[in-house]
Amino acid sequence: MPNWPGFKREICISNSNDKILEKQLQLIEINLGSYYNKYNKTIYKNNKRWQSNKWQEMCSENLFHVSYWNVESNELVCFCSIMPCEESIVEGEMSNIIYLYEIHVAPEWRNQKFGKSILNALKEKLCPKAHLSGIELTVFSSNERAINFYRNNGFTLSYDSPSDKRRRTRTGIRIIRPTYYIMCYVLR
Ligand SMILES: CC(C)(COP(=O)(O)OP(=O)(O)OC[C@H]1O[C@@H](n2cnc3c(N)ncnc32)[C@H](O)[C@@H]1OP(=O)(O)O)[C@@H](O)C(=O)NCCC(=O)NCCS
């Protein structure tokens, strides 16, 4: 994973560092809190607050959190959470991949290529070194900015992703989007 001068990198696994996870959860809330408030029940299928569902997910076994901190202010700048696992990203084939659970950049640090550098490190360094076939992730279908970001970085809709449905109405055709898409990057 990248190492940038002026930023401290921390790597931890599942719930080995509660203080880091708390900061990461705060950033998820800033970035995507409105989405989780809206879709909590749909995605987690229970009555708990999304924050406690997310916390449980962040504590999953084998989930690695890589975070970057501003050395001067000690603020969280960005992080990603990844899990090596077996999945099918090419129809009919199972392979070892990285599941990208989270990628977040704090609002004041966006558009400075932190996100792109993290994806590049996964695509160009981690996957080839660890003999992994690609990366998969889930993205809210209404998070257009993130979808564009992934597309610009070589990701496409996965063959098994939920897809848009066309519904005929009195006034024409209406497109119904699923709650989320699954996107992947396949190493060639
Ligand atoms: C998606 C995210 C990780 C991207 O990180 P980032 O460090 O800001 O991204 P980068 O600087 O590497 O690249 C930004 C790209 O988005 C483009 N962009 C900037 N503002 C944009 C906007 N309002 N809408 C669409 N694209 C935009 C930039 O032009 C740039 O494209 P380029 O690579 O072709 O130049 C970051 O925006 C983020 O944390 N978003 C909130 C959390 C989130 O949605 N995470 C994904 C969950 S699945």
TrEMBL record:
Enzyme Commission number(s): 2.3.1.257
Cross-referenced CDD domains: NAT_SF
Entry's localization field: Cytoplasm; Nucleus
Record-linked PROSITE patterns: GNAT
GO cellular component: cytoplasm; nucleus
Domain N-acetyltransferase: 22-180
Annotated Pfam families: Acetyltransf_1
Gene Ontology MF terms: histone H2A acetyltransferase activity; histone H4 acetyltransferase activity; protein N-terminal-serine acetyltransferase activity
Catalysed reactions, as listed in the record: N-terminal L-seryl-[histone H4] + acetyl-CoA = N-terminal N(alpha)-acetyl-L-seryl-[histone H4] + CoA + H(+); N-terminal L-seryl-[histone H2A] + acetyl-CoA = N-terminal N(alpha)-acetyl-L-seryl-[histone H2A] + CoA + H(+)
Alphabetically ordered keywords of this record: Acyltransferase, Cytoplasm, Nucleus, Transferase
Major localization listed first in the record, in broad terms: cytoplasm
Record InterPro entries: Acyl_CoA_acyltransferase, GNAT_dom, NAA40
Family note: Belongs to the acetyltransferase family. NAA40 subfamily.
PANTHER family: N-ALPHA-ACETYLTRANSFERASE 40
Protein name according to UniProt: N-alpha-acetyltransferase 40
Species, as recorded: Zygosaccharomyces rouxii (strain ATCC 2623 / CBS 732 / NBRC 1130 / NCYC 568 / NRRL Y-229)
